[in-house]
Amino acid sequence: MAGSVVVLAGVLIRAWASGHIRKAKKLAVSGPYAYTRNPLYVGSLIIGLGFTVASGVWWLGVIFLVLFLGIYLPVMRVEIGDMQRIFGAEFDEYEQNVPLFLPRLTKWKDSGEKFDFQLYLQYREYRAAIGAAIVVAILAAKAFFLI
Asked: Which pTM does this prediction carry?
């Protein structure tokens, strides 16, 4: 159960982020993007940690963290170059004020933009919620029937 609560937190962060991003069209600085430049990845990390908590096997958490960092840190570095190329000075200011991954404690600035449910649907972020729900249901069934 504890793992499923952590998974839910990650799914909600990813959902919140997807409703604020307009890929390659407008620099996302609202919602969770006012706290971290990569809230989708933060949400993915939390989801993965939730599943490792649910597994009850501590070393799976270590393996997950090593794989996550090995995959996503290089991806984030490449994306910095893309963002600088697309958004220029606007991204430079954002990069100076909002951390790459670990969120800041206070909002950088209030852009006034609100969550857009149509973006959530457009990017099909609901698939992460469905997938997480299926895995949580399987783990719950396994725990229920094996106890």
From this structure: 0.91
